[in-house]
Write a structure and sequence with these properties.
It is built from 9 helices and no strands. By secondary structure, it is an all-alpha fold. The chain has one domain. The protein starts with 6 loop residues before the first helix and ends with a helix.
Length: 243
């Protein structure tokens, strides 16, 4: 399974799968979406697993679980055109994925401890929470009554994920923080566009922008989580705890 440890190869396959899914969504070619969309998270998940399994802990297991639930969400959402009920299934799966990411980020924060970087982390967290609150206030009342509650819960969890990603500032390797936080922001942006296009008004760019931002977000979260796990200082700390 060394192929799944190859950054370049996995990156190429992931990009091709994402582009195939985007083209399928834009052209209404469901067969292309069926072939490419599930492949995205499958490839990313296997890559993350084989790169991180030597350092397996709660953090990596939670990220892995998040990728798995994201894969389930992708499978459900690509069937949305058959039955709108699949949208709710996908919403639930992605909520579980983001909960896993939230707990993983919180575990990172609690594991390191200390007050370093707290000011910057608090400012970033405040921005994320403010955006989530304003967007939710504007959108949730316009959502269909039968999905208002799950949509509201999902919006809260998505915002919480971004806030917890912000709190990692100063508690991890800087490249890891930047990647994960950028990934969380892109995930929120993707969900915002999806919610706007579905419940508020049509957006011509939604068929490609939602998937593009989502694909970039998931890669950055997984890649940033790996940078945290493989950081030399983190590896030394883990080795010291095991001696």
């Amino acid at each position: 399974m060394s192929l799944f440890k190859n950054h370049l190869l996995v990156g190429i396959v992931y990009i091709l799968a994402a582009l195939g899914a985007i083209m399928g969504e834009m052209r209404g070619q469901h067969a292309l979406v069926y072939a490419c969309k599930p492949l995205m998270m499958l490839v990313l998940s296997l890559w993350f697993y084989f790169k991180s399994r030597r350092y397996g802990d709660r953090f990596t297991l939670l990220i892995q679980a998040g990728l798995f639930f994201s894969w389930l969400g992708d499978m459900a959402l690509m069937l949305d055109h058959i039955d709108p009920y699949y949208f709710l299934i996908g919403l639930g799966a992605f909520m579980l994925a983001q909960l896993c990411y939230c707990i993983a980020f919180a575990h990172n924060v609690a594991d390191v401890g200390g007050g370093q970087g707290l000011l910057v982390a608090s400012l970033l967290m405040a921005v994320v929470l403010a955006y989530g609150g304003i967007f939710g206030y504007e959108v949730i009342p316009r959502v269909d009554a039968d999905v208002q509650v799950p949509a509201g819960i999902y919006a809260f969890v998505t915002t919480l994920m971004g806030a917890m990603a912000a709190l990692r500032f100063g508690r991890t390797y800087l490249p890891s923080f930047i990647m994960v936080f950028a990934g969380a922001v892109l995930f929120i942006a993707s969900d915002s566009i999806l919610a706007t296009a579905r419940f508020i008004r049509p957006l011509d760019h939604a068929p490609w922008s939602v998937l593009l931002l989502y694909a970039a977000a998931q890669y950055l979260i997984a890649r940033g989580a790996l940078r945290h796990v493989l950081d030399p200082e983190e590896a030394r700390r883990r080795a010291a705890l095991n001696t």
